[in-house]
Specification:
alpha+beta; Rossmann fold; 5 domains; five-stranded mixed β-sheet; 8 helices; globular
Length: about 475
């Protein structure tokens, strides 16, 4: 960040630090491509300590990119080994990650997992003050759902009001696990919260749809406040038609699109999701990353996850284009060839072997039959690391004809898992949520000769990287 965004960030930091009490403890972590901590561990927030921290910030140099995951990891480490400290992790940033992991869904899932693995009394609440018009709000919103709050200030807004509102929430607990449920016979579907967090005394709202009118439908709001359950119920009619709130259909469509966009951030693009976003945006007249007030074509990039080397990139478009050119982030410019039998544009490109794993952007230049030029940016993921596989067996001695029950842990990107034992039919393993592992049964051959055999499980991930693990098992008479 620089200029106005940087100045506003420093102003927010100074206001935050000067609002601390002498009895509070704090630490400060500056981050770019690396992290730099003010102190090894949190220190007292007396006036001298706060001033030294601000001097430390002013003396730092602007350099490199932004490794947001490293910064979050350093922040979480400050909370370890300090049980009962009532810790808060406050992030002041635009959320633009350019180094290390940069895919929103990956960073958010990693942060939630690492934070959850901390002992409960060491988990910090996550407070985020987002600065700038180009802030990565989808990622910051997902991070703030870890028992925290997100506040964004735009360049056109005065900062004082939003900053004071943000600071007033630090130290207060939102109502946890807040949700609204309708009676089953109401048939309510796709109900979305209109706020990510709600504090005692504030207003919480939800929007959803129902297929048929109903009388006297019971609605229940549940949550947790200061460790105690909260439950509020009320009945209301669901009319066939009402003109009191004409904005509700559009409000629901906007909430639905926001949920679909977040799904894309976590899981990547798919055609059905994009089509629904475009349909709702056009019907209710609002702008999304996939629509504008100008009707323009779009492209769908495949595959999104590849290995370094010589991969294939495919682009799906509608039938109005006569050429597609890809501009890769490492300087390559490549024209795509149209395959009429598959109705896709395709090219092979060499991804340098030294490209680090992460998300990269490829720019597409598309020309239609009327000579109009369209530009789109798509992302792809370089994934070079093979799946990590861990076999878990209750025992390692079996008799011929017995079922060898397998429980296997594997990297989250793993697509297929196959278990093999000499003389036995290979078995594909599948995820079992109740067991918390990939499971399956491999039958020891009746004709197996007693001895030691190698049981091997091989996994392939979505980038076609292959990993395996083997363990010795003994066949006894």
């Amino acid at each position: 960040m620089q200029w106005e965004k940087l100045e506003r960030s420093y102003e927010a930091l100074e206001t935050l630090l000067r609002s601390l009490r002498p009895a509070d403890r704090f630490n400060l972590i500056l981050f770019n491509s690396q992290t730099q901590a003010y102190q090894a561990r949190p220190v007292g927030a007396d006036s001298a300590g706060v001033q030294h921290a601000l001097d430390f910030t002013r003396a730092s140099k602007l350099r490199g990119g932004t490794n947001l995951q490293a910064a979050l990891e350093a922040g979480l480490q400050q909370c370890e080994r300090q049980p009962g400290s009532n810790a808060y992790l406050v992030l002041i940033s635009d959320g633009g990650a350019t180094r290390g992991p940069i895919q929103n869904g990956h960073i958010a899932a990693w942060y939630a997992s690492v934070r959850k693995n901390l002992p409960e009394d060491e988990r910090p609440r996550t407070y985020i003050f987002s600065v700038g018009d180009d802030a990565n709000v989808p990622l910051l919103r997902m991070l703030a759902r870890n028992d925290g709050v997100l506040e964004q200030v735009l360049s056109t807004e005065p900062m004082e009001f939003k900053l004071n509102a943000f600071l007033s929430k630090i130290g207060s607990s939102p109502v946890g696990q807040l949700r609204m449920e309708a009676a089953a016979d109401a048939g309510a579907e796709r109900v979305y919260a209109l706020q990510d967090t709600a504090y005692p005394g504030s207003v919480a709202g939800w929007v959803g749809r129902y297929p048929l009118p109903r009388k006297d439908v019971k609605f229940t709001v549940r949550g947790e406040r200061d460790g105690a359950p909260v439950e509020i119920s009320k009945s209301a009619d669901l009319p066939a038609r009402s003109f009191e709130h004409p904005q509700l259909p559009r409000l629901w469509a906007r909430a639905r699109v926001d949920a679909l966009l977040e799904k894309i951030e976590r899981e990547g693009e798919d055609e059905a999701t994009i089509d629904e976003i475009i349909r709702l945006a056009r019907e209710y007249k609002f702008v999304t990353p996939y629509t504008s007030f100008l009707a323009v074509p779009r492209a769908l990039l495949r595959p999104r996850v590849i290995r370094p080397g010589d991969p294939v990139l495919r682009v799906k478009t509608n039938g109005t284009f006569e050429s597609v050119v890809a501009l890769f982030p490492f300087g390559l410019v490549q024209g795509l060839r149209y395959l009429p039998d598959e109705d896709v544009w395709e090219t092979r490109f060499y991804a340098p072997d030294d490209m680090q794993d992460g998300t990269y952007t490829v720019r597409l230049i598309l020309r239609d039959t009327a000579g109009r030029i369209y530009r789109e940016a798509k992302t792809f993921v370089i994934a070079s690391k093979p799946p990590v596989i861990q076999i878990k067996l209750d025992r390692k001695r079996f008799r011929p004809g017995e079922a060898l029950k397998l429980r296997v842990a594997a990297s989250s990107s793993t697509r297929t898992l196959v278990a093999r034992l000499e003389g036995a039919v290979p078995v594909e393993l599948h995820w079992d949520a109740s067991a918390g592992a990939n499971t399956g049964e491999l039958i020891v051959p009746q004709q197996a000769i007693p001895g030691v055999y190698k049981l091997t499980v091989t996994g392939e991930d979505i980038a076609h990287n292959i990993g395996s693990q083997g363990v010795d098992v003994e066949i006894v008479p």
